[in-house]
Write a structure and sequence with these properties.
With about 260 residues, this protein is mainly alpha-helical. The protein folds into two domains: about 1-145 and about 230-260, no CATH class; about 145-225, no CATH class. It has helices at about 5-10, 25-40, 50-65, 65-85, 90, 105-130, 135-145, 150-180, 185-215, 230-250, 250-260, and strands spanning about 95-100, 100-105. It has a two-stranded antiparallel sheet with strand order 1-2. The radius of gyration is 23 Å and the shape is flat. The protein starts with 6 loop residues before the first helix and ends with a helix.
């Protein structure tokens, strides 16, 4: 369950660092721009993506984030990226790169490109969550014009994801203790999913009634009234400028030419 503990990333949002103190809107805009720029590169671009790893490393170091939880969450989603690009080497045999006596096809280059972009984009999203927290992030989305109903749904989905995962873990643990076996069949897992759905619906009804009793009107009240300051504007302008430069020129290639 340690791998699935998304709350551990959210807990990092309450740490104390210069990056944590920045306005959530600035970090959200920077992260979205970062993802758009990274995804805009050609499928054969490899060296041009490497400077963006330096940007992520600087953010992680400035925020003093522990690497182990971030890497665990990254590895948890890695099979999806591998599945997306796994067939590229079988369909794209066009020679693209020659290293010594080895000829590397475009399929392997594009596969590597997919993995690099996956690490960069998912890593950026994890750093955003780890330096902001889900509640401040949802508040920033609403301040940037996202309809409140979508923000509320996202916040509740995130909040009660932990409740459902805990219910599922308890059900699996109970079945294993009563049956004395460690592994369950697909049929048994299917039955557990059905019971989990019924228990989730019942809990959702009780939670909704409790919220209505306490005066919930569909809107999330924000306690953080921080204003967009000069440091936030400078951070935003600097990061966007770096992205424009890194997208316009292959910085790794230019640096290699200078060193040669």
């Amino acid at each position: 369950m340690r791998w699935l503990d998304v709350g551990q990333i959210d807990d990092m949002g309450r740490m104390n660092s210069p990056i944590h103190h920045l306005d959530a809107r600035a970090k959200l805009i920077v992260t979205l721009a970062f993802i758009v720029v990274v995804m805009s590169f050609d499928r054969y671009a490899i060296s041009a993506l490497t400077p963006f790893f330096l940007f992520l490393a600087v953010l992680i170091a400035a925020a003093r984030l522990p690497m182990a939880p971030l890497l665990r969450k990254l590895l948890l989603a890695a099979p999806f990226a591998v599945l997306v690009g796994a067939f590229n080497p079988f369909f794209d045999h066009q020679p693209v790169l020659q290293i010594g006596g080895w000829t590397i096809s475009g399929g392997w280059i594009s596969f590597t490109n997919i993995l690099l972009r996956f690490v960069l984009t998912v890593g950026a999203a994890l750093v955003l969550l780890a330096t902001t927290g889900m509640y401040r992030l949802c508040a920033a989305l609403e301040q940037l014009g996202v309809p409140p109903i979508f923000v509320t749904q996202l916040l509740f989905l995130y909040r009660y994801l932990f409740v459902i995962s805990d219910e599922g873990a308890q059900m699996v643990r109970s079945v294993r203790m009563r049956s004395g076996v460690r592994g369950l069949s697909f049929r048994e897992y299917g039955g557990l999913v059905g019971h989990l759905l019924m228990r989730s619906l019942d809990r959702a009804e009780r939670v909704h009634q409790a919220m209505l009793t306490r005066g919930f009107d569909g809107n999330i009240r924000r306690l953080d009234s921080r204003r967009f300051g000069l440091s936030d504007a400078l951070f935003l302008i600097f990061c966007l400028s770096v992205f424009i430069v890194a997208r316009s020129w292959n910085l790794a290639e230019h640096l290699g030419r200078l060193l040669n």
